[in-house]
Amino acid sequence: MQASSRPFRSASIDEGPDGPAPPLYQRKLLVACGFAAPILFVGTFLIEGATRPGYDPWAEFVSLLSLGSDGWMQVANFLASGWLLLAFSVAVLHAVRVRAAPRLAPIVFSTMGLGLVAAGAFPTDAADTPLTLPGELHYVATALVAASMAAACLLEWHDGRHDPERMVAARRLMAAGWVSIGLFTISLVLPAAADPGLVERLAFVVGSVGVLLYARRVWPNFPARPSRNRQGAAVTMRDG
Description:
It is a single chain. The protein has 6 helices and 2 strands. It has one domain (19-221). It starts with 23 loop residues before the first helix and ends with a strand. The chain has helices at residues 24-51, 72-97, 105-121, 133-160, 167-189, 196-218, and strands at 225-228, 234-237. The longest helix is centred in the N-terminal third of the chain and has 28 residues, at 24-51. The chain is globular and about 50 Å long. By secondary structure, the protein is mainly α. Mean pLDDT is 80; it is low at 1-18 and 224-240. Helix 1 runs antiparallel to helix 6 (196-218) and helix 4 packs across helix 6 (196-218). Helix content is 60%, strand content 3%.
């Protein structure tokens, strides 16, 4: 597999306090979680919002899908997507170890994953009801998800702004990050003027595209795992 142009520390991947790197197929599986999470998350709330009786996806937030007799589906969506992103953050951490990702990247994606898990664990409050502690925690969790999704777009811009081959894509992702932040802000600050459900969905879609693009960036950046022969010299091992 062709490595990235970034300088890898491939000779020391299996050494040091971080322990040995997992086999290549395991790392690919962890990166695949980064593709699956945004597709599952967005696809589920779009289908649920379009088919749930009595639910208006243009006017109501995604979190309100977690209420009612069918609310378990959105709760499961929050939890499953969050755990998938936590798995992806492990892959990103290994990418950091070979200098294929910035140090902040695992923090961004693990925060996103924890935010989604917390959003599923703490139920939101129904509209026009008093705010409860679980409801407040749910809002904090969704704010973390929104911020980290926007940060994922900005991470890709930060990582590629000096690479001529990725300059255009990096600028587009920077714009996507700011658009995501703006849409989330509009959905919260101007709910009466700007169909909050639609605006929030657009923000989630834009942020999820950033996650997909970052997973695509990380996928090819796993060099072969080094091992050592009997004389102690580093040799290259291909992990399938």
